[in-house]
Each structure stands twice: as C-alpha cells, then as structure tokens.
Amino acid sequence: MAKDAIPSPVINPVSTGYRRYALWVLLIIYTLNFLDRQVVNILAEPIKRDLGLADWQLGMMTGLAFAVFYTVLGIPIARMAETKNRPFIIGASVAAWSAFTVLCGFTQNFWQLILARIGVGVGEAGCTPPAHSLITDYVPKEKRASAIAFYSIGTPLGTLAGMAMGGLIADAYGWRVAFMVAGAPGVLFALVAAFTLVEPRKQMAAEMAARARSQISFAAALAVLATKKTFWLVALAASIKAFIGYGHAPFTASFFFRNHGPELAQLAAMFGLKSAGFLGLALGLVGGTAGMIGAWLGGVFADRLGAKDLRAYVTVPAIASLITIPIYIAAVSHPAPMTAIGLLAINALLATLWYGPVYATAQSIVDPALRATASAVLLLIINLIGLGLGPLAVGLLSDVLAGHVGLGEAQGVRWALIVSATLGLAAFALFWAARNSIREEMVA
C-alpha cells in the first residue's frame, strides 16, 4: 500500500449482501429526489406559456425558491442525523417531497407554484446528509468514493427519468399530470427506507456512545471545518460546477425549442411524437446515460488512482472541468440539433465526474461524528450558490441579452449558456489548488 493510501476501518456493521441492497435502495431514493427536482426543467416552456412567465421567473421557480429552504434546513436535519435514526429521517423526507411534487400539479399561478417548490425543497433537505452518513458507516473507507459515486448516479438517472417521463406525459396529458406522476412513487419508497434500511449505530453501539458523549456544538463543528483548507476549496469548486449545471438545466430544453424548433418537430414526427416528448427522450437518454457513466467513473478513478496518490480526488474533477468548456460551447453553437445533443452527452459524462471524489473527500477529512454536518455544510454551499443562483442568473442574463441587448429570445438564451459555461475555468483552478492540502488533511 502507498504511504498515503486510505486504510480500511475495523468495524463492518453490515454484511456485503445487505450493503448492496442498501446502496440500491438509496440510489432509487436519490433518483426520485432528482426526478421530482428536475422534471420541472422539461416542463418549463409549457409552464411559461400557461402561466405567462418570464425567464427570470423560470429561474426563480427552478432554483432559488427550492434552494433556500433546501440548503438552510439541511443543517438542522444533519445535526439530528448525527445521533437520531437516519432511515426514519430519510423516509419522512421522501414522503414530504413527493407530496409537494404532486401538489405542484394543482397550482394555478406563479406564487402557488413557488410555494409548492419550496415544499419540495423542505422535504429533499432530509435526504443526502443522512444518506452520505449512512453510506460512510456501511462501506470500507477505501471504497467510499465509489459507493458515494454510485449513490450520486441518482442525479443523472433522476434527470434522465424526469426529462423523458415529463416530456412524454406533458405531451399526452399536460404538465400538471407530469408532476403528479413524478411524485407518486415516493410514497412506497418512504416506507422502504424507514422500515428496511438498517441504522448501523445498533451494531456500533460502543462507538456511537462515545460519539454521542463527544458530540460538539454546530459552532464548534464549523470551527473544525474552518481548519480544513481542502474542504473549502472543493466546496467552492463544486458550487461553481453546480452553478453551471443547475443554471443550464432549466434552459436546455428552451434553447432547443427556440433555436431548433422546426428541426425538432420533423425529427419528432418521424417517431410519431411531439417535440417535447422527443426532446425529453433524447436529452434524457443520451445525456442521462452519459451522466450516469461519468458519475460512476469519477468514483472509480478517484478510488483507484487515490490508492497511489490522494491528490487524484481533486485532479480528476479539475481536468474534467477544463475539458467541458469547449465541448459545451461547441454543442450550443452547432446548427444540427442531434449533433448538439451528442456533444452535450460528452459534456454530461465529464461534468458528473466530480460527484464521488468531492463528497468522499468531505466525508474523509472529518471525524465520524461530523460527517452528516460536513455533508450538510457542503450541500448548503453547493446548492445555495449552484441551485439557488445558477438558474436565476442564467435566466436574468438571457432576458437582458434578449431584450435590452436586442439579441432576441433564441440568441439570448444561447449566449447566456455560453457565458456561464466559461466559469468552469474557476472550478478548475480551485480543484487544482486543493492538490496542495488534500494529502495531509485526508491522512490526518
């Protein structure tokens, strides 16, 4: 073993077979998390037409309204998850966000939809911090990035399902029904999480008793995190990646409708579909599949390369962040829609490589008693900047370029996407800077 490789822990609270089951359950739950979160993106144009919204309102609805409550509530829920039953917390969260997703289908105006999306954010706040903490307890340390990357596949998989299912159902029955169908499966998996996931603290009683006795305040936890230079560098880098990804998501379908409308209609007719259904399937299947492969590969690369040099945990996402910029610009600049979708698939593969390495790094540089808190703080930074500001900023820039600059809606959204993509340079610089501290902090 290399001198800075990560050793395995002594305690293995669950069997290998059960570990696989639990990871699959958590993956499905996280897929539903993103399905309910992202289905709104393929529905953005029909919602805009039906409710008479501007692009900035789409950005507010898909980003800031959701993100503020999602990120803020993540902290107290994570503190609860440090000592309480994590499967029950996850189950209650799934039930809450699923109910509010269904409620989105009954809204009649912008502000009602905003309140329903806030409810989705409140529910989803209780998913990932306790899930990351559970996975970290279930899995040996040297396999942690791969396990968290497997869980993170739920991001592209849920986006795939949301785009494909949302587009098809919206074409057939309208956007309201799409919300209702998206929220329905959560009721079942809320029960599965609460009653079949094992709380390993029962098998780790001695360790958890010591952990409970030594639990520190949130202020003290932040003071510990403040000393972890790597944490803040990867958190800021990941937040920029999220700003780009979340900022692009609500406007990708709009970009294609506005710039490739006639071509999409012709392609859809060849398959007996309408434009929204065809585009949802194309973006979901091509981009979603590539994103799943990228999320999985990111964890595999980080664990395998990290066994020799821990800097791989930040080197992999750094290089990927740099390469995505010209590929994305080429995609939204190409005149052929199917070629553009193909280039976006390559972009999706590279843009998801950071999931496993970043979350595993955050879990591996803190004491076990701070893992859920570290995950929540990381998610607060990523989602407040990325999810909260990304869609709103891209929407505002699109409106300014379309109206005040005079580019029109089609070119306005194109250039808003291009400008925001160049922020990947800052993500690259931050990930690369983390190479200077990660080995010392992760080993410690």
UniProtKB/TrEMBL annotation:
Keywords of the record: Membrane, Transmembrane, Transmembrane helix, Transport
Gene3D superfamilies, A to Z: MFS general substrate transporter like domains
Recorded superkingdom: Bacteria
Compartments where located: Membrane
Residues of the Major facilitator superfamily (MFS) profile domain: 22-439
InterPro entries in alphabetical order: MFS, MFS_dom, MFS_spinster-like, MFS_trans_sf
Membrane topology: Multi-pass membrane protein
CDD domains referenced in this protein's UniProt entry, alphabetically: MFS_spinster_like (cd17328)
Listed transmembrane segments: 18-35, 56-76, 88-107, 148-169, 175-198, 277-298, 310-332, 338-360, 372-393, 413-434
Pfam families per the UniProt record, alphabetical: MFS_1
Protein name (record): MFS transporter
